[in-house]
Design brief:
The protein is α/β, with parallel strands linked by helices. The chain contains twelve helices and six strands. The structure holds iron/sulfur cluster.
């Protein structure tokens, strides 16, 4: 990755965690902020959207993840269907107590058709192991099933098309708890514009399922000093899970 792209990714991470406070704390002038946000590779946080239940009621005939995967894995509802290498449905235990949800496949996931592989995937596996979950016993998915080019943030219209699939997956897996990793999945599925800092440590609900939020493993790779905060988040998540057993 070029130095410019590394810098942009690092600032995006900071914005994800601290929200617009970042600009005030760094005394960025409005002009600098606007220049930064006008860079084509950096999107303002999109307008998030909670799909109404009616959008996924059409899928009521699909009673298993396998049959649902067959139904949607040739999807072309948004332009990412044309640019993907592989559709990334999700992976893991179809009856998992724990579901982990990120934002979208990256390059490794797009190549393999499996969510959270590569360095970020290994870190997620280690994070789960730290709270005594094997990767195989949880179910891991993303909001988008196809990779956005150059790992850009998902666009609202792409999420609008794809989120109903995720809701159906949640309905089929019926987890006891959900862990959202990263700002995009957290703010989309919790329908909020709060920064990740403000969401971490709180317990929310998605379709009546207790849900918590932590950093995306890819952000942790770029900002190892956030690993301690992630450790604290997942300890709380584990306690929440234990309290529901
Ligand atoms: S991202 Fe989702 S909605 Fe878009 S083509 Fe892929 S599966 Fe379909």
């Amino acid at each position: 990755m070029s130095t410019k792209n590394l810098l942009i990714e690092a600032i995006k991470d900071q914005q994800n965690i601290f929200g617009d406070d970042l600009y005030e704390n760094l005394n960025f002038s409005n002009q600098i902020k606007n220049n930064f946000l006008n860079d084509n590779s950096v999107k303002e946080k999109p307008e998030f959207y909670m799909p109404p239940k009616s959008l996924f009621e059409n899928y009521s005939e699909y009673k298993t993840l396998e049959s649902f995967n067959k139904k949607i894995n040739t999807c072309q509802k948004c332009p990412l269907g044309k640019t993907r290498t592989k559709f990334v449905f999700g992976a893991g235990n179809p009856n998992a107590d724990v579901m982990v949800i990120g934002e979208a496949p990256g390059a490794d996931e797009d190549a393999q058709g499996v969510p959270f592989v590569g360095r970020a995937g290994k870190l997620l596996t280690d994070i789960l192991k730290a709270i005594d979950f094997d990767r195989e016993e949880v179910f891991i998915a993303n909001i988008l099933k196809c990779r956005p080019p150059n790992n850009r943030n998902p666009l609202p219209e792409e999420m609008n098309e794809c989120t109903p699939y995720l809701y159906k997956q949640i309905e089929l897996v019926k987890p006891k708890v959900i862990l959202l990793v990263g700002l995009i999945s957290a703010s989309t599925l919790l329908n909020t514009k709060l920064s990740l800092t403000k969401m971490r440590g709180n317990v929310y609900e998605i379709q009546g399922i207790k849900t918590m939020v932590t950093y995306h493993p890819a952000a942790l790779l770029r900002n190892p000093n956030w690993k301690r905060g992630c450790w604290e988040d997942v300890q709380k998540f584990k306690k929440l899970y234990e309290s529901l057993k």
